[in-house]
Amino acid sequence: MNALTTFDVGYDVPARPGDALDTVQTPALVIDLDAFERNLERLRAAADAMGVRLRPHAKTHKSADIARIQMERGGACGISCQKVSEAEALVRAGIDDILVANEVRDPAKLDRIGRLALEARIILCVDDAEALPDLARATSRHGSTLEVLVEIDCGAGRCGISPGEPARDLALRIAETPGLVFAGLQAYHGPAQHIADPSERRAAIAKAVVSTERTVSLLAEVGLSCAIVGGAGTGSFPLEGGSGVYNELQCGSYVFMDADYERVRTEDGGRPGGFENALFVLTSVMSRPAQGRAVCDAGLKSLSTDSGLPRVFDREGVAYVGVSDEHGSLSDPGDTLRVNDRIRLVPGHCDPTCNLHDWYVCVRNGRVEALWPVTARGKSW
Q1: Cis, peptide link before residue 333, omega less than 30° from 0
Q2: CA angle, 53 as apex, 77 and 105 as ends, to 5°?
Q3: What is the residue extent of each domain of the chain?
């Protein structure tokens, strides 16, 4: 192992290109590039086979580098995000086709959206006609145009107008509003992504497809076509993509996978899409205070536990069993761990975990190949 100096790592970045994996400063967010690239290709091939477009969700990775790769090599027609500041960060980095898959009502945020639409194609979701005057004022102020999706509640119980006639009537209002272009429907069923049982997940998405298809038909009756019928995610995309109703998929976690998505299974016992673990929190053993027990340096400030504790990757018998701010407790019945051993953890939920880090350390064949900044880290306004 090469000796480290503060000149090499530790001030601005956790590693440098060419470093060995076991010299990376921990805790660090590590991408296995080979697995990452295979995940990109798997979803691209699946979308091509189903004849649908990909608009991957950047809320997972918040990285302009990954967004560019998804568009250049991963088959994406554009990128989805959740917040105006995320969209601004991506546009500044050169991403020019973005769906803000969320409602935006604050006048200052709407002004920013109206201005941003001068620099890139911006699509926005709406679920309330009262939002339209403010949106129109924002586009008028900047001389821009916004494409708008009607978000319907197709089972998630979160945002979204009721499908059917209420959604149709809102779409008609959008089409009549200066500066706005009705572009289609947002029909995302978030909770269904994490239904582990395949038959229950299929039933949930079947209901979403029925309500979405009925809304599309009602819109056609009044002369409105849906250029975009978007939704779907990592856990359910084969169902929406194969429905003949959806034409854009908004999968996000597929590029990384996490411990929560590992619980989602297909009828044959596999994972939807066959995606691999490509994202890890690299941590170091910092203490062995007792037999059968060790402590690592990755706690709540390095990984999210809202979907459960992380899984220890490729270490037979070792488990992550407890967490505090800066420490993780490890069960090691075989006493196999030693101080400064590096361990890869599969986070329970990749999205909020990524938002805790400044850098992705990208690794291939045990060596650091690149570092990518988490471009939109903390961009939640």
Answers
A1: no
A2: 70
A3: 37-256
Please name which of 322, 340, 336, 324 lies closest in space to residue 292, comparing C-alpha atoms.
Answer: 336
Supply φ then ψ for residue 289, to 5 degrees. Answer: -75, -15
End-to-end Cα, the chain, rounded Å: 43
pLDDT digits (tens, 9 = 90+) for 1-59: 233 333 445 568 999 999 999 999 999 999 999 999 999 999 999 999 999 999 999 99
Q: Which residues contact 25 (CB under 8 A, 6 or more apart)?
A: 4, 9, 10, 14, 15
Its pTM surpasses 0.85? yes
How many Cβ atoms are within 10 Å of 270's Cβ, its own excluded?
A: 11
Alpha-carbon separation of residue 375 from 172, 183, 300, 360, 371 (angstroms)? 37, 28, 21, 10, 12
DSSP state letter for 120:
S
DSSP state of 129: G
CB count within 10 Å of CB 155 equals 21
The C-alpha atoms of residue 109 and residue 38 are separated, in whole angstroms, by 37
Question: Which amino acid type is present at position 347?
Answer: P
The arrangement of secondary structure in 37-256, i.e. its CATH architecture, is: Alpha-Beta Barrel (3.20)
Token pair of 259 as six digits: 């411990």
Give alpha helix (H) positions in the chain.
33-50, 64-72, 84-92, 107-116, 132-142, 165-176, 198-221, 237-241, 350-354
Q: Give the CA angle between residues 125, 128, 130 to the nearest 5°.
A: 120
Evaluate whether 87 touches 116 at the Cβ level (below 8 Å): yes
Q: Is the dihedral of CA 290, 296, 300, 306 positive or negative?
A: negative
- What are the tens digits of pLDDT across the range 196-217? 999 999 999 999 999 999 999 9
